[in-house]
Amino acid sequence: MAGLNSLEAVKCKMQALQQQADEVEDRTQGLQWELDSKHEQHEKDQDDVAALNLHIQLVEEEWDRAQERLATALQKLEEAEKAADETERGMKVIENPAMKNEKMENQEMQLKEAKHTAEDTDHKYKEVARKLVILEGELERVEECEVSELKCGDLEELKECH
């Protein structure tokens, strides 16, 4: 009878140990799945960061070109304004109405072109500024991704400890 009780005690102990082993295996599988998921997200985040960095570079280049076009347009506008002032002074000096009209028409056309160029450049400037705001939002996402990467590293360290 004593042998039967100790056999039952050993069986109970083996069942308890088997249950613990099963629980540890289940937990390990869960952690492995979570780690794999974090790795996939980390790789996706790295791809997103690279794409956003390229996008930022392209927008910055576009911004530089827009700044150059704006400077050119402003210079042309200044020249047109000077021409308009000159035209006004010239109108007072010139006595021949035909010469006045021709020169004034040319200067008015130059002024209109300069104003149109300035408006076009201003529109492009606003578009680039809008894109910059969008990129700043995307940059915040990138920074959040970097935080996620750090958390993933912490989870890996935690897994290694267990």
From TrEMBL:
GO terms for molecular function: actin binding. Belongs to the tropomyosin family. PANTHER family: TROPOMYOSIN. InterPro entries: Tropomyosin (IPR000533). Residues 35-45, 79-92 have a biased composition (Basic and acidic residues). Keywords: Actin-binding, Coiled coil, Muscle protein. This is Uncharacterized protein. Residues 21-45, 79-102 are annotated as: Disordered. It comes from the Eukaryota. SUPFAM superfamilies: Tropomyosin.
